[in-house]
Amino acid sequence: MNLTKAMAYCRKLPGATEDIKWETNLVFSVGEKMFAVTGADGSKRGISFKVDDDRFLELTDRPGIIPAPYLARARWVYIEDPKAVSDAEAAELLQRSYELVFAKLTKKLQREIQGL
């Protein structure tokens, strides 16, 4: 996984915003709810994001992917080794994280983001 490509993918999702939280974390959000987090200062070479409950154990059993610190109980994983996933798989996982968070938004906010 190329982290620059992963961040570019997050930026192009509908309604996605990014900001700095906790001093050094670049947070990607939709409807003010975060769906991906990485290092803003380049010190982190990985990325954290939400996954489906049934994929959490499957992914964290793979080398280079661990439960995300502070967010594991909400079923977030952290890819600490960029070689653990391909660019294509990273895009699929980030898309799914976005969808999981988007689905929890109010219907009104979902319509606003979709431009309906």
UniProtKB/TrEMBL annotation:
SUPFAM superfamilies: YjbR-like. Keywords: DNA-binding. InterPro entries: YjbR, YjbR-like_sf, YjbR/MT2646/Rv2570-like. It comes from Duganella aquatilis. One of its GO terms (molecular function) is DNA binding. It holds the Pfam family YjbR. This is MmcQ/YjbR family DNA-binding protein.
